[in-house]
Amino acid sequence: MSTLPKIAWIGLGIMGAPMAENLIKAGYPVTGHTLEQDKLDRLAAAGGTPAASIAEAVREADVVVTMVPASPQVEAIAYGPDGILENARRGALLIDMSSITPQTSVDLAAAAAGKGIRVLDAPVSGGEAGAVEAVLSIMVGGAQEDFDAAYPLFEALGKTIVRCGPHGSGQTVKAANQLIVAVNIQACAEAVVFLEKSGVDLSAALDVLNGGLAGSTVLTRKKDNFLNRDFAPGFRIDLHHKDMGIVTDAARAVGAALPTGTLVASLVAALRAQGDGGLDHSALLRGVERLSGHTTG
């Protein structure tokens, strides 16, 4: 029997499934719940234990980890008679790794405290590849002692693990992350169209650009997407649209101007309105191509 904490994992999507599997590989006993049977089957094949409900998953857990798309989903699984707060044991640690509004995280922590449940907000960056390879960047908000207790678990999921401050701080840093990523992808997409229309060898150009000051993790991760026009979702436009709404609203609340971010948020929204919301965020290239007179398939 494992002496490691018992984990309940809620949400087994593109990010959640490989993350839960990495905990299983690290020796953690993982019980998981999600709405899709095929994802529960995948968890079982990896050595985890499927649960038919949230209540069943969390009842005996030392740590509950959630990874769902947005604030409404976090609230849906956390609150109510069938939710986490009513069914997890007192003293459990709830780690929400979703990307949601900072205020949702603050409110969740306050509600959980009344049930004797500790909370960390711990959103991640690195996309599907980072989740699979366990090299995510994890930005955490919450009490230092809870962060310290969770650190070994985080080490099984990522490489850069930083407590950023009190509850909600992780989500604030994640919002800034998504701002930088979106602007970076947009700049890369514009460069790709410019280079191609100029008749330059695109692969060679991206290689040399990525070796200099223009280089970035975004360009490294998304180069093949651009070259092959492969927009299978690692992180969907729909989700980045949600995140750009979070960062623009949060910036307005604190009085921070986001002139470039606001423009890119509009371009992400336009791409979504054109039916590309289910594609990877590297599909911002399609928006630049349309603006440049190129008809995308």
What would your notes on this structure say?
The protein is of the alpha/beta class. It is built from 14 helices and 9 strands. The protein has helices at about 15-25, 35-45, 55-60, 70-80, 85, 100-115, 125-135, 145-155, 170-195, 200-210, 215-230, 235-255, 260-275, 285-290; strands spanning about 5-10, 30-35, 50, 65, 95, 120, 125, 135-140, 160-165. The strands form 2 sheets. It has a 6-stranded parallel beta sheet, sandwiched between helices. β8, α8 (about 145-155) and β9 form a beta-alpha-beta unit. It is an enzyme of class 1 (oxidoreductase). GO terms for molecular function: 2-hydroxy-3-oxopropionate reductase activity. Its EC number is 1.1.1.60. Belongs to the HIBADH-related family. Pfam families: NAD_binding_11, NAD_binding_2.
